[in-house]
Amino acid sequence: MVAKLINGTAIAQEVLDEVAARLKETRAKIPGFSVTLAVVQVGNRSDSTVYISKKLEKAKQVGVQSELSKLGTDCDEFELESVIERLNNDPHIDGIIVQLPLDTVNKIDVEKILDKIRPEKDVDGLTRMNVGKLARGELDSAIVPCTPFGCLRLVQKATGDDNFVQGKRVVVLGRSKIVGAPAAALFTWF
C-alpha cells in the first residue's frame, strides 16, 4: 500500500464551502432563515480563547451568526446553569457550546452542566442523550462530537468513498469523552 499525503486544510475548506453553500441555498428557499451559535466561556484560559475565536471566525465564514457569553473565574454552577437555560429558551439560538475546560475557582459538575443543554442544541454532542444515541448507533438522530466526525469526514473526502471505513479495523488511541470514546463508538457503526 502506497502512503498518501492528505491535505487536511484543503479538505476542511471544501467542507466549509459546502456548509456555506447549503446555508445560502436554504436562505434562498426560506427568506429570513438564519442560524445562530452560542458559545459559553467560563474564565480566561488563553487556549480556550483561541479555540473560541477560531470557532466564531469559521461560523462567520459560512454565514452562521454567533453569540459569546463570557463568565468570570468566579462563576458558580447556578450562574452557568442560568446562562444555559436562557440560551435553551431563546428561539434565535440554534446551537450551544460550553467551552471546556471550565476555568473557575468554584467546583462545577461538568456532566450536570452539559446535560442542561437541550440535546437538539448540543453542538458538541456531549449530553447524555447524544452520547447514548451514538453508543446505540442512532446516527440519524445523534449529534456526534466534531473531532470524531471530522476524522470520519476527512477519510471520506480523502478517499472519495463515503463507505471507505466500512468493514475495516480502525484503531483509536485514547478514550477521552470528547474524542477517543466517541470516535470508537462512531467507527463501530461503519
In short:
The protein contains 7 helices and 3 strands, in the order αβαβαβαααα. The chain has helices at residues 8-29, 46-62, 77-89, 110-115, 128-136, 146-159, 180-188, and strands at residues 36-42, 65-71, 95-98. The chain is globular, with a radius of gyration of 18 Å.
Describe this structure in words.
Helices cover 47% and strands 9% of the residues. It is built from seven helices and three strands; from the N terminus they run H-E-H-E-H-E-H-H-H-H. Strands 2-1-3 form a three-stranded parallel sheet, with helices on both faces. The mean pLDDT is 96.
List keywords for this structure.
NADP, mainly alpha, 7 helices, three-stranded parallel beta sheet, THF_DH/CycHdrlase, 190 residues, THF_DH/CycHdrlase_cat_dom
What topology emerges from the helices and strands here?
Blueprint: H1 8-29, E1 36-42, H2 46-62, E2 65-71, H3 77-89, E3 95-98, H4 110-115, H5 128-136, H6 146-159, H7 180-188
Helix pairs in contact: 6-7
